[in-house]
Amino acid sequence: MPYEPSPFLRSLPVFAGEEHQPFRKSARGAVRGAALLVHGFPGTPADMRPLAWSLSGAGWDVDAPLLPGFGPQIVTLPNRRHAEWRDAVVERVRSLQQDHGKVIVVGHSLGASVAVLSARRAQADGYALLAPYWRFGGAMTHMLWPLLRYYFGRWRPLHRADFSDERIQQGVQAIIPDLDIDDPAVQAELRAFVVPTQLLSELRRLGIAAGKEARRLHAPTLVVQGVRDTLVKPPDTERLVERLPSMRRYEKVDGSHSLPLPAGGAWERVAQAVLGFADEVAGE
Fold it and tell me: Which regions of 54-206 does DSSP assign to beta strands (E)?
């Protein structure tokens, strides 16, 4: 049964800023190739803008799409399927290949798994995977998931949230900037907000599919992982690295999950790794 968001959610100006829209940026100087930047969950192209500026300055045309169901469409996300995200990346890679001799894909978190999954249909010349998501919980979660989904059909992530916590305030306002989070009525609506487990199931299916496809990714690959990442954990990324047949480099950096952003704590290292990898691909 399709998920129906509440009237409150439908009324919110979620990800309304221009920075969350898809964008393209032309290379400065001689064009060396094209870079497709794929955002993560629940992100938007805004997360990829710092890398876009660095890559365009190094001679790469940049294309940063908005995946279906994200950004202003995020209330529809529980009804989306990972094949839609894969197909969106396939379409963009094919389009860039028509006009560029070299195409690289830079994916963050969910965007990295979608990039891996798309490669069988449209393989680029190189893949930079930042904090690549592919494992949904641990072995116990996988084993018990059918039971958990049956008994807990809806998850309320903010049910016990402390809205005086600055981190929670920043997280909510990053998505809905003008929301009055101090309003008790707004807090009550946020506490009642539910995430259907059908969305979590789709993320789980995406991770499983990406883990299998990783063994078939024969293009040169860079993986960057933050050692302080609590969402995509380093041991899981190391297991993924072992599956990739064309690994060029695996770099651990002193950062969190937000690797494409300066707030992630390792921005300069991440940018240096991606630009160095792009140089290698351009020269081959």
Answer: 60-64, 103-108, 126-130, 154-155, 195-196
Q: What are phi and psi of 4, to 5 degrees?
A: -120, 110
The model carries a pTM of 0.85
Are 268 and 239 in contact by the 8 Å Cβ rule? The answer is: no
| CA atoms of 33 and 26, how far apart (whole Å) | 10
CB of 207 within 8 A of CB of 85? no
136 is written with which tokens? 């949904």
Residue 227 in contact with residue 254, Cβ under 8 Å? yes
Question: Does 28 or 182 have the greater pLDDT score?
Answer: 28
**Lookup: tokens for 78:** 């529980």
Q: Among 77-81, 131-135, 174-178, where is mean pLDDT lowest?
A: 174-178
The answer to whether the beta carbons of residues 100 and 125 sit under 8 Å apart is: no
Give the SS3 label for residue 148.
helix
- For 75, residues 6+ apart whose C-beta sits below 8 A from its C-beta are 5, 9, 10, 14
∠ CA 88-211-40, rounded to 5° = 45
Q: Residue 188's pLDDT is what?
A: 81
Q: Which range is least confidently modeled, 71-85, 94-108, 140-154, 209-223?
A: 140-154
